[in-house]
Amino acid sequence: MIKAGQQSSSTLTQYPKLAIAALLLLIVNDHIFKAYYPGFITGKLSDVAAAYLLPLWFEMVLNSLGISRQRSIVLATLMSVSALTAIEVSPPIIKAYEQVHTQIYGSLQLPYVSKLTADLTDLYAQVFSALYLYLARRVQGNAHLPHPSPRSRF
To answer: Is the pTM of this model over 0.85?
Structure first.
């Protein structure tokens, strides 16, 4: 927990431009690029963005629950890799994901039906979870990783 007068040093607050870029990539790719330019590249762009954004989201949730920063970084990485792997390899989880996604879009009255294709090559994008882990550990200020300077932020 953050005490009064203490600033948050989450990965999101240190690298907001990277998080915004990943979110924009995910939205534009899923709703524009995939419709007009379907193919291998557009199929992987969302996976790359999600592999960075999901651990970031888990980190924020874990931090809000009072879990230490060091533990939340490791847990966030493990949770996101597990979730993304399950979505790719487990038919019941794929079906549940599609149903929830379709219901969300239906409640927003958006013309979109989610169809997830199980593709084990999507697991390669999880390398980008390592980018999250690297940046998060830099923010944490581990001795073996240099602390980011204002000029080196994404």
So the answer is: no
